Amino acid sequence: MAAPTAEEIRANSYVGFDTITSQIEHKLLKRGFQFNIIVAGQTGLGKSTLINTIFASHLIDSKGRLEPDEPVRQTTEIHPVSHVIVENGVRLRLNIVDTPGYGDQINNENCWDPIVKYIKDQHSAYLRKELTAQRERHIQDTRIHCCLFFINPTGHSLRPIDIIVMKKLSEVVNVVPVIAKADSLTLEEREAFKQRIREELVYNNIRLYPFDTEENDDEEIQLNETIRSMIPFAVVGSERTVIIDGKTVRGRKNRWGVVNVEDERHCEFVHLRNFLTRSHLQDLIETTAQIHYEAFRSKQLLALKEQTNARPSAAAQ
Question: What is the spatial order of strands in the sheet that 257-260 belongs to?
Answer without folding.
Answer: 241-244, 247-254, 257-260
